[in-house]
Protein backbone atom coordinates (compact mmCIF):
# COMPACT_ATOMS: atom_id res chain seq x y z
CA UNK A 1 0.00 0.00 0.00
CA UNK A 2 1.12 3.56 -0.53
CA UNK A 3 -0.47 6.85 0.24
CA UNK A 4 -1.98 8.62 -2.71
CA UNK A 5 -1.68 12.39 -2.81
CA UNK A 6 -4.13 14.73 -4.48
CA UNK A 7 -1.30 16.62 -6.10
CA UNK A 8 1.75 15.14 -7.76
CA UNK A 9 3.59 18.36 -6.97
CA UNK A 10 2.69 17.99 -3.30
CA UNK A 11 4.14 14.47 -3.28
CA UNK A 12 7.41 15.67 -4.79
CA UNK A 13 7.65 18.52 -2.30
CA UNK A 14 7.08 16.19 0.62
CA UNK A 15 9.85 13.84 -0.45
CA UNK A 16 12.29 16.69 -1.05
CA UNK A 17 11.63 18.03 2.42
CA UNK A 18 12.56 14.78 4.17
CA UNK A 19 16.19 13.83 4.73
CA UNK A 20 17.32 10.46 5.98
CA UNK A 21 19.58 11.18 8.90
CA UNK A 22 22.63 9.32 7.66
CA UNK A 23 26.00 10.89 6.93
CA UNK A 24 28.15 10.96 3.82
CA UNK A 25 31.96 11.05 4.11
CA UNK A 26 32.25 14.45 2.42
CA UNK A 27 29.87 15.99 4.93
CA UNK A 28 31.98 14.50 7.71
CA UNK A 29 35.22 15.82 6.22
CA UNK A 30 33.76 19.30 5.85
CA UNK A 31 32.50 19.21 9.44
CA UNK A 32 35.92 18.27 10.79
CA UNK A 33 37.63 20.87 8.61
CA UNK A 34 35.37 23.68 9.76
CA UNK A 35 35.37 22.91 13.47
CA UNK A 36 38.36 25.12 14.36
CA UNK A 37 37.04 28.00 12.27
CA UNK A 38 33.70 27.86 14.04
CA UNK A 39 35.42 27.69 17.41
CA UNK A 40 37.46 30.81 16.63
CA UNK A 41 34.36 32.63 15.39
CA UNK A 42 32.38 31.77 18.49
CA UNK A 43 35.23 32.80 20.79
CA UNK A 44 35.44 36.16 18.99
CA UNK A 45 31.70 36.69 19.29
CA UNK A 46 31.78 35.84 22.98
CA UNK A 47 34.66 38.28 23.59
CA UNK A 48 32.86 41.06 21.71
CA UNK A 49 29.64 40.40 23.59
CA UNK A 50 31.45 40.55 26.93
CA UNK A 51 33.00 43.95 26.06
CA UNK A 52 29.58 45.29 25.06
CA UNK A 53 28.01 44.12 28.30
CA UNK A 54 30.85 45.57 30.39
CA UNK A 55 30.47 49.04 28.84
CA UNK A 56 26.68 49.03 28.93
CA UNK A 57 24.77 51.06 31.51
CA UNK A 58 21.63 48.96 31.20
CA UNK A 59 19.72 48.46 34.46
CA UNK A 60 20.12 45.15 36.25
CA UNK A 61 17.31 42.69 35.58
CA UNK A 62 16.56 39.81 37.92
CA UNK A 63 14.77 36.77 36.48
CA UNK A 64 13.10 34.49 39.01
CA UNK A 65 12.39 30.90 38.08
CA UNK A 66 9.35 29.20 39.51
CA UNK A 67 9.96 27.10 42.59
CA UNK A 68 8.77 24.03 40.65
CA UNK A 69 11.42 24.54 37.96
CA UNK A 70 14.11 25.23 40.57
CA UNK A 71 13.27 22.00 42.33
CA UNK A 72 12.94 19.95 39.16
CA UNK A 73 16.07 21.14 37.33
CA UNK A 74 18.69 19.47 39.59
CA UNK A 75 16.67 16.24 39.62
CA UNK A 76 16.39 16.19 35.82
CA UNK A 77 20.05 17.05 35.40
CA UNK A 78 21.15 14.23 37.67
CA UNK A 79 18.76 11.82 35.97
CA UNK A 80 20.11 12.69 32.52
CA UNK A 81 23.74 12.33 33.64
CA UNK A 82 22.96 8.92 35.13
CA UNK A 83 20.99 7.93 32.01
CA UNK A 84 23.87 8.80 29.71
CA UNK A 85 26.34 6.82 31.79
CA UNK A 86 24.06 3.78 31.77
CA UNK A 87 23.00 3.68 28.13
CA UNK A 88 25.89 5.19 26.15
CA UNK A 89 27.96 1.94 26.30
CA UNK A 90 25.13 0.32 24.32
CA UNK A 91 25.14 2.96 21.54
CA UNK A 92 27.52 2.47 18.61
CA UNK A 93 28.79 4.27 15.53
CA UNK A 94 28.62 2.37 12.24
CA UNK A 95 31.10 3.04 9.46
CA UNK A 96 30.15 1.75 6.04
CA UNK A 97 32.72 0.83 3.38
CA UNK A 98 32.20 0.02 -0.28
CA UNK A 99 29.33 0.83 -2.55
CA UNK A 100 29.64 4.34 -3.95
CA UNK A 101 33.20 5.56 -3.44
CA UNK A 102 33.73 9.08 -2.06
CA UNK A 103 34.59 11.64 -4.74
CA UNK A 104 37.89 12.64 -3.20
CA UNK A 105 41.44 11.40 -3.72
CA UNK A 106 42.96 9.33 -0.92
CA UNK A 107 46.43 7.76 -0.56
CA UNK A 108 46.84 4.33 -2.12
CA UNK A 109 45.77 1.59 0.30
CA UNK A 110 43.89 3.99 2.56
CA UNK A 111 40.15 3.40 2.51
CA UNK A 112 37.66 5.98 3.72
CA UNK A 113 34.13 5.13 4.88
CA UNK A 114 31.51 5.78 2.24
CA UNK A 115 28.83 6.40 4.86
CA UNK A 116 28.22 6.57 8.57
CA UNK A 117 25.33 6.16 10.98
CA UNK A 118 24.41 4.97 14.45
CA UNK A 119 23.02 1.86 16.07
CA UNK A 120 22.54 0.12 19.39
CA UNK A 121 23.33 -3.24 20.96
CA UNK A 122 20.28 -5.51 20.88
CA UNK A 123 21.50 -8.59 22.77
CA UNK A 124 24.48 -10.43 24.21
CA UNK A 125 24.88 -12.40 20.97
CA UNK A 126 26.30 -9.28 19.36
CA UNK A 127 23.32 -8.18 17.28
CA UNK A 128 23.27 -4.47 16.42
CA UNK A 129 20.09 -2.67 15.30
CA UNK A 130 20.35 0.21 12.83
CA UNK A 131 18.52 1.60 9.78
CA UNK A 132 18.32 -0.24 6.48
CA UNK A 133 19.33 2.91 4.62
CA UNK A 134 22.53 3.18 6.67
CA UNK A 135 23.94 -0.17 5.49
CA UNK A 136 22.00 -0.89 2.29
CA UNK A 137 24.80 0.07 -0.14
CA UNK A 138 27.73 -1.13 1.94
CA UNK A 139 30.12 -4.04 1.55
CA UNK A 140 32.01 -3.91 4.86
CA UNK A 141 30.84 -2.59 8.21
CA UNK A 142 32.83 -1.33 11.16
CA UNK A 143 31.17 -0.91 14.57
CA UNK A 144 32.74 1.55 17.00
CA UNK A 145 31.73 1.24 20.65
CA UNK A 146 31.53 4.07 23.17
CA UNK A 147 34.90 3.17 24.72
CA UNK A 148 36.60 3.30 21.32
CA UNK A 149 36.75 -0.45 20.71
CA UNK A 150 36.14 -1.44 17.09
CA UNK A 151 34.88 -4.62 15.45
CA UNK A 152 33.89 -5.77 12.00
CA UNK A 153 30.26 -6.75 11.55
CA UNK A 154 28.20 -8.67 9.02
CA UNK A 155 24.60 -8.22 7.90
CA UNK A 156 22.12 -10.64 9.47
CA UNK A 157 18.87 -9.25 8.05
CA UNK A 158 17.47 -6.27 6.13
CA UNK A 159 13.94 -4.89 5.95
CA UNK A 160 13.05 -2.12 3.53
CA UNK A 161 9.49 -1.86 4.83
CA UNK A 162 10.47 -0.69 8.31
CA UNK A 163 13.90 0.72 7.36
CA UNK A 164 15.47 -1.59 9.94
CA UNK A 165 18.58 -3.72 9.66
CA UNK A 166 20.45 -6.08 11.96
CA UNK A 167 24.23 -6.51 12.01
CA UNK A 168 26.28 -8.89 14.13
CA UNK A 169 29.70 -7.95 15.44
CA UNK A 170 32.52 -10.45 15.22
CA UNK A 171 34.94 -11.45 17.98
CA UNK A 172 33.37 -9.33 20.74
CA UNK A 173 32.97 -11.13 24.11
CA UNK A 174 29.41 -11.07 25.44
CA UNK A 175 30.52 -9.49 28.73
CA UNK A 176 31.63 -6.42 26.77
CA UNK A 177 28.21 -5.96 25.17
CA UNK A 178 25.61 -3.70 26.83
CA UNK A 179 22.16 -4.39 25.30
CA UNK A 180 19.58 -1.63 25.59
CA UNK A 181 16.07 -2.63 26.70
CA UNK A 182 13.36 -2.11 24.06
CA UNK A 183 10.25 -0.48 25.52
CA UNK A 184 6.58 -0.50 24.56
CA UNK A 185 5.98 2.37 22.15
CA UNK A 186 2.21 2.04 22.58
CA UNK A 187 2.69 3.63 26.00
CA UNK A 188 4.49 6.69 24.60
CA UNK A 189 2.56 9.95 24.90
CA UNK A 190 3.06 13.42 23.34
CA UNK A 191 4.81 15.67 25.83
CA UNK A 192 6.92 12.85 27.23
CA UNK A 193 10.61 13.78 27.69
CA UNK A 194 12.97 11.78 25.46
CA UNK A 195 16.65 11.74 24.57
CA UNK A 196 18.36 10.81 21.32
CA UNK A 197 21.81 9.23 21.30
CA UNK A 198 24.02 8.83 18.28
CA UNK A 199 26.75 10.30 16.14
CA UNK A 200 25.55 13.45 14.36
CA UNK A 201 28.14 14.70 11.86
CA UNK A 202 30.45 11.94 13.12
CA UNK A 203 30.53 13.33 16.68
CA UNK A 204 30.35 10.08 18.63
CA UNK A 205 28.34 9.73 21.80
CA UNK A 206 26.16 12.80 21.35
CA UNK A 207 23.04 13.11 23.53
CA UNK A 208 20.18 15.52 22.81
CA UNK A 209 17.02 16.26 24.77
CA UNK A 210 13.45 16.92 23.66
CA UNK A 211 9.90 15.70 23.89
CA UNK A 212 7.58 13.46 21.92
CA UNK A 213 5.91 15.96 19.60
CA UNK A 214 3.33 13.56 18.14
CA UNK A 215 2.54 9.91 17.53
CA UNK A 216 1.30 8.01 14.52
CA UNK A 217 3.11 9.80 11.70
CA UNK A 218 3.32 8.12 8.28
CA UNK A 219 6.28 8.38 5.89
CA UNK A 220 7.37 6.64 2.68
CA UNK A 221 9.30 3.43 3.36
CA UNK A 222 12.34 2.11 1.50
CA UNK A 223 10.27 -0.64 -0.15
CA UNK A 224 9.05 -0.19 -3.71
CA UNK A 225 5.48 -1.13 -4.56
CA UNK A 226 4.64 -3.42 -7.47
CA UNK A 227 2.48 -0.76 -9.13
CA UNK A 228 5.14 1.94 -8.76
CA UNK A 229 6.05 4.32 -5.97
CA UNK A 230 6.79 3.04 -2.50
CA UNK A 231 4.86 1.49 0.36
CA UNK A 232 4.10 3.61 3.40
CA UNK A 233 5.29 2.93 6.92
CA UNK A 234 3.26 4.11 9.87
CA UNK A 235 3.35 4.63 13.62
CA UNK A 236 6.42 6.86 13.55
CA UNK A 237 7.20 9.03 16.55
CA UNK A 238 7.78 12.73 15.91
CA UNK A 239 10.23 14.46 18.24
CA UNK A 240 11.97 17.80 18.61
CA UNK A 241 15.07 16.18 20.14
CA UNK A 242 17.86 17.24 17.78
CA UNK A 243 18.46 14.59 15.09
CA UNK A 244 20.98 15.33 12.35
CA UNK A 245 22.91 13.45 9.64
CA UNK A 246 24.74 10.62 11.40
CA UNK A 247 21.94 9.98 13.93
CA UNK A 248 20.21 7.43 11.68
CA UNK A 249 19.80 4.09 13.41
CA UNK A 250 20.51 5.44 16.89
CA UNK A 251 18.04 5.04 19.76
CA UNK A 252 15.36 7.42 20.98
CA UNK A 253 14.98 6.69 24.70
CA UNK A 254 12.62 7.49 27.52
CA UNK A 255 13.95 8.61 30.89
CA UNK A 256 13.95 5.00 32.11
CA UNK A 257 16.61 4.18 29.51
CA UNK A 258 14.28 2.12 27.30
CA UNK A 259 14.47 2.37 23.51
CA UNK A 260 11.11 3.70 22.35
CA UNK A 261 12.20 4.47 18.79
CA UNK A 262 14.96 4.22 16.19
CA UNK A 263 15.91 7.59 14.73
CA UNK A 264 15.23 7.64 10.99
CA UNK A 265 14.65 11.00 9.29
CA UNK A 266 14.35 14.74 9.75
CA UNK A 267 12.17 17.36 8.13
CA UNK A 268 14.34 19.96 6.41
CA UNK A 269 13.86 23.27 4.66
CA UNK A 270 15.47 24.10 1.31
CA UNK A 271 18.92 22.59 0.75
CA UNK A 272 19.92 22.57 4.43
CA UNK A 273 20.13 19.00 5.79
CA UNK A 274 20.03 19.97 9.46
CA UNK A 275 17.57 19.75 12.32
CA UNK A 276 14.69 22.22 12.37
CA UNK A 277 12.87 20.61 15.30
CA UNK A 278 10.95 17.94 13.37
CA UNK A 279 12.50 14.48 13.54
CA UNK A 280 11.01 11.01 13.10
CA UNK A 281 11.79 7.70 14.79
CA UNK A 282 10.55 4.19 14.02
CA UNK A 283 8.37 3.10 16.94
CA UNK A 284 10.00 0.47 19.15
CA UNK A 285 7.14 -2.00 18.74
CA UNK A 286 8.23 -2.32 15.11
CA UNK A 287 11.65 -3.28 16.46
CA UNK A 288 10.09 -5.85 18.77
CA UNK A 289 8.15 -7.31 15.85
CA UNK A 290 10.64 -7.10 12.96
CA UNK A 291 14.08 -7.62 14.52
CA UNK A 292 13.48 -11.17 15.90
CA UNK A 293 12.36 -12.24 12.41
CA UNK A 294 15.43 -10.63 10.83
CA UNK A 295 17.64 -12.54 13.25
CA UNK A 296 15.76 -15.80 12.68
CA UNK A 297 15.18 -15.71 8.89
CA UNK A 298 16.88 -12.57 7.56
CA UNK A 299 13.62 -11.01 6.37
CA UNK A 300 10.16 -9.85 7.45
CA UNK A 301 7.06 -10.56 5.35
CA UNK A 302 4.38 -7.85 5.33
CA UNK A 303 0.63 -8.24 4.79
CA UNK A 304 -0.70 -6.66 1.62
CA UNK A 305 -4.09 -5.22 0.65
CA UNK A 306 -3.33 -3.49 -2.62
CA UNK A 307 -4.87 -0.02 -2.40
CA UNK A 308 -3.82 3.57 -2.88
CA UNK A 309 -5.64 5.76 -0.41
CA UNK A 310 -6.02 9.24 1.02
CA UNK A 311 -6.93 10.33 4.53
CA UNK A 312 -7.52 13.61 6.35
CA UNK A 313 -9.61 14.98 3.50
CA UNK A 314 -10.50 18.69 3.62
CA UNK A 315 -14.10 19.44 4.51
CA UNK A 316 -14.78 20.84 1.04
CA UNK A 317 -13.67 17.55 -0.54
CA UNK A 318 -15.75 15.52 1.93
CA UNK A 319 -18.83 17.54 0.99
CA UNK A 320 -18.13 17.28 -2.73
CA UNK A 321 -17.69 13.50 -2.51
CA UNK A 322 -20.84 13.30 -0.38
CA UNK A 323 -19.10 11.18 2.26
CA UNK A 324 -21.25 10.42 5.32
CA UNK A 325 -18.41 10.88 7.90
CA UNK A 326 -15.34 13.13 8.07
CA UNK A 327 -12.80 10.43 8.97
CA UNK A 328 -11.48 7.19 7.51
CA UNK A 329 -9.35 6.13 4.55
CA UNK A 330 -10.68 6.98 1.09
CA UNK A 331 -9.71 4.40 -1.55
CA UNK A 332 -8.39 6.24 -4.58
CA UNK A 333 -7.22 3.18 -6.51
CA UNK A 334 -7.37 -0.62 -6.18
CA UNK A 335 -4.40 -2.50 -7.64
CA UNK A 336 -5.61 -4.99 -10.28
CA UNK A 337 -5.31 -8.60 -9.12
CA UNK A 338 -4.58 -7.58 -5.52
CA UNK A 339 -6.38 -8.99 -2.44
CA UNK A 340 -8.50 -5.82 -2.30
CA UNK A 341 -9.45 -6.27 -5.96
CA UNK A 342 -10.40 -9.92 -5.47
CA UNK A 343 -12.57 -8.93 -2.50
CA UNK A 344 -14.46 -6.37 -4.60
CA UNK A 345 -13.16 -3.23 -2.92
CA UNK A 346 -13.89 -0.21 -5.09
CA UNK A 347 -11.52 2.62 -6.01
CA UNK A 348 -12.41 6.10 -7.19
CA UNK A 349 -13.34 6.88 -10.77
CA UNK A 350 -10.53 7.51 -13.22
CA UNK A 351 -9.45 11.11 -13.72
CA UNK A 352 -6.78 12.80 -15.80
CA UNK A 353 -6.22 15.58 -13.28
CA UNK A 354 -3.67 14.90 -10.50
CA UNK A 355 -5.16 17.77 -8.48
CA UNK A 356 -8.65 16.32 -8.10
CA UNK A 357 -9.84 13.50 -5.85
CA UNK A 358 -12.54 11.79 -7.91
CA UNK A 359 -15.76 10.29 -6.52
CA UNK A 360 -16.77 6.64 -6.35
CA UNK A 361 -14.20 5.20 -3.95
CA UNK A 362 -14.94 3.18 -0.82
CA UNK A 363 -14.31 4.82 2.55
CA UNK A 364 -12.69 2.43 5.06
CA UNK A 365 -13.67 3.28 8.66
CA UNK A 366 -12.74 0.07 10.52
CA UNK A 367 -10.75 -3.16 10.25
CA UNK A 368 -11.94 -6.08 12.39
CA UNK A 369 -14.00 -3.52 14.37
CA UNK A 370 -10.86 -1.50 15.09
CA UNK A 371 -11.61 2.16 14.18
CA UNK A 372 -9.68 3.56 11.22
CA UNK A 373 -9.44 7.34 11.43
CA UNK A 374 -6.21 7.72 9.42
CA UNK A 375 -4.08 5.79 6.96
CA UNK A 376 -1.63 5.16 9.77
CA UNK A 377 -4.34 3.35 11.77
CA UNK A 378 -4.89 0.95 8.88
CA UNK A 379 -1.18 0.32 8.27
CA UNK A 380 -0.35 -0.15 11.95
CA UNK A 381 -3.19 -2.64 12.46
CA UNK A 382 -2.27 -4.63 9.38
CA UNK A 383 1.42 -4.84 10.22
CA UNK A 384 1.07 -5.58 13.93
CA UNK A 385 -2.10 -7.68 14.06
CA UNK A 386 -2.41 -9.43 10.69
CA UNK A 387 -0.27 -12.00 8.89
CA UNK A 388 -0.37 -12.91 5.19
CA UNK A 389 -3.18 -15.39 4.59
CA UNK A 390 -5.43 -14.01 7.35
CA UNK A 391 -8.93 -12.82 6.52
CA UNK A 392 -9.93 -9.40 7.81
CA UNK A 393 -13.26 -7.57 7.81
CA UNK A 394 -13.18 -4.03 6.47
CA UNK A 395 -16.08 -1.77 7.44
CA UNK A 396 -16.69 0.68 4.61
CA UNK A 397 -19.10 3.28 3.31
CA UNK A 398 -20.09 2.84 -0.34
CA UNK A 399 -22.57 5.18 -1.99
CA UNK A 400 -23.56 6.39 1.48
CA UNK A 401 -24.32 2.87 2.77
CA UNK A 402 -22.35 1.13 5.50
CA UNK A 403 -21.26 -2.47 4.82
CA UNK A 404 -18.60 -5.08 5.65
CA UNK A 405 -16.18 -6.55 3.11
CA UNK A 406 -14.01 -9.60 3.87
CA UNK A 407 -10.49 -9.55 2.44
CA UNK A 408 -7.98 -12.39 2.52
CA UNK A 409 -4.69 -10.55 2.97
CA UNK A 410 -1.73 -11.33 0.71
CA UNK A 411 1.97 -10.55 1.11
CA UNK A 412 4.06 -7.79 -0.41
Total helical elements:
8
**Helical proportion?**
10-25%
CATH T-level topology of the largest domain: Thrombin, subunit H
| Domain count | 2
What order do the helices and strands follow?
EHEHHEEEHEEEEEEEEEHEEHEHEEHEEE
What does this structure look like?
With 412 residues, the protein is α+β, with helices and mostly antiparallel strands. It has two domains: 13-35 and 72-102 and 111-300, Beta Barrel (Thrombin, subunit H), CATH 2.40.10.120; 303-411, Pdz3 Domain. The protein contains eight helices and 22 strands. The chain has helices at 8-16, 25-55, 67-87, 132-135, 284-297, 315-321, 339-342, 375-385, and strands spanning 2-3, 18-20, 91-97, 115-121, 127-131, 140-144, 150-159, 164-169, 193-198, 206-224, 230-239, 251-253, 259-267, 279-283, 303-304, 307-310, 329-334, 363-367, 370-371, 391-398, 401-408, 410-411. The strands form four sheets. Strands 1, 16, 17, 18, 19, 20 and 21 form a seven-stranded mixed beta sheet that branches. β9 (193-198) and β10 (206-224) form a beta hairpin. The protein is elongated, with a radius of gyration of 24 Å. Residues 1-16 and 25-69 have low confidence and may be disordered.
Structure keywords:
six-stranded antiparallel β-barrel, 25% helix, 412 residues, Thrombin, subunit H, 22 strands, single chain, elongated, seven-stranded mixed sheet, Pdz3 Domain
Secondary structure layout plus pairing:
Blueprint: E1 2-3, H1 8-16, E2 18-20, H2 25-55, H3 67-87, E3 91-97, E4 115-121, E5 127-131, H4 132-135, E6 140-144, E7 150-159, E8 164-169, E9 193-198, E10 206-224, E11 230-239, E12 251-253, E13 259-267, E14 279-283, H5 284-297, E15 303-304, E16 307-310, H6 315-321, E17 329-334, H7 339-342, E18 363-367, E19 370-371, H8 375-385, E20 391-398, E21 401-408, E22 410-411
Parallel strand pairs: 1-16
Antiparallel strand pairs: 2-13, 3-4, 3-6, 4-5, 5-8, 6-7, 7-8, 9-10, 9-12, 10-11, 11-14, 12-13, 13-14, 15-22, 16-17, 17-18, 18-19, 18-20, 20-21
Amino acid sequence: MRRAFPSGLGFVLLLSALSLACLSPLTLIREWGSQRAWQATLEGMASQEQETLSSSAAPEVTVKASSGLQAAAPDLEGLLVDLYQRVSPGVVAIRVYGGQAPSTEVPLGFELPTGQGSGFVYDKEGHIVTNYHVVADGEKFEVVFANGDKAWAEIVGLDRGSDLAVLRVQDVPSDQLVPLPVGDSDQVQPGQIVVALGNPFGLRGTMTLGIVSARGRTLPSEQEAQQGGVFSMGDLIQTDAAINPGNSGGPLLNLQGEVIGVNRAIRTEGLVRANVGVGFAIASNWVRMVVPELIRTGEFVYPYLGIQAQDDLPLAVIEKLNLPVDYGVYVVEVVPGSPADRAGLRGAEATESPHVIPPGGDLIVAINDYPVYTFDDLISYLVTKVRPGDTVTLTIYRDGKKMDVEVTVGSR
